[in-house]
Amino acid sequence: MAKVSTNLSLDPTLKIQAQKLFAELGFDLSTAVTVFFKQALRERKIPFQITMDIPTQTTVDALNEYEDMKKHEKNEYKRYGSFKEILREVAEEDAKYNKIKKI
Is residue 79 part of a domain? Predict the structure, then answer.
C-alpha cells in the first residue's frame, strides 16, 4: 500500500511523552496514528469516550457543601454583605496567623 506523508502540529512535550508510551507498546508514532485512524474508521467514531474533566474530591466536597448551605440558609453559615468584607476578614485572619507563627 502506498503511503503519504502528513504533518501534525503537536506540543513538543506531548509528542515526546506519546513516543515513549508507544515505544513501550512496540509502536512508532506513525503506526500509533495509523492504528487510531483505522479504529476510528472501523467504529465510525472517535474510538474512546471524550468527557469533561472529572472534578477533584475537593471540588466535589465544595459543591456538596454549597448544596447543603442552600438547604440550611438560616444562620448556620456566616454571611457577608460584600466581597470587601470577606477580604477584610481573610486579611485579619492572615495577620493573626502570621503574628502567631513569628512567636
Answer: yes
